[in-house]
Design brief:
Order of helices and strands: HEHHEEHEEEEEEHHHHH
Shape: globular
Radius of gyration: 22 Å
Structural class: alpha+beta
Amino acid sequence: MTQPTDIRRDTALRLAASGVPVLPLRAGKGPFGNCRACARNACGGRPNMKHAGPCACPRPCHAWAAATTDPEVIASPAWVSAWRQAACVGYHPGGAGLTVVDLDNPAAVDWARETLPLTRTVPTTRGEHWLYQGAMRSVNAVRPGVDIKSTMAYARWLGPATGPLTTLPDVVRALAVKEAPTVRPAPHTVTVPAGGGACRHRTPTYLDRGIAMAEQQITGAQAAVHATVYRTFLAVLSTHGRCGCLTDAHIARLFTAAQGKGESARHCTDAWANARTRLGL
């Protein structure tokens, strides 16, 4: 009798043979966590969509970057062990040259039918996946109940879709373009150093260098983007949050960097608020 493990592995092999990079997903549709050797990016690798991960690890590490089309990797002992624990097959849409518009509820589906060009679709538990030919940046929560999954993201394989595959339209690409939110920090009393003089944080060199380093920290994140954004916001606020030197423009730069890594405006706002709360600001 065919076992679920064999079904998942065979499905993955068929997808890989058609050029779709695959990976096993745990219950809850999450990827397998990094092994001990790769925990906290200790391996120092970088995501590579053509191989089993950003390093030489044979396990399905590194979330979306583990997706592969290599049949030897998919059928390897390390991956067979993962298939036994997996709940379903995932794939990297961007690696297959696809974009998935994930419609999470009936209202989102209705919006798509009124707004987006018809394309290949597949039903989900609560809504539908609309597939387009072409890759783009992945962004969550582009509007209520709508996520975009393409590069640097994974989606659950839900079976064959129906309908012709439409070229990725500009209206979908435009969903990923967000204006930087206007965030006004709560007013703070400027702390003047003992002995007089202006707050050193207000000097362009000091402050701009700090913001630039924070932007680089966010844009350079290869994994754990949520945590990196929060830690960076926390570091910026711990240094500059009590003297009132941060402006809307500085905060917008940080939010823009975070959204460039796929964070939503809501996640940015929440992370900023949580960092302020932790520091008592």
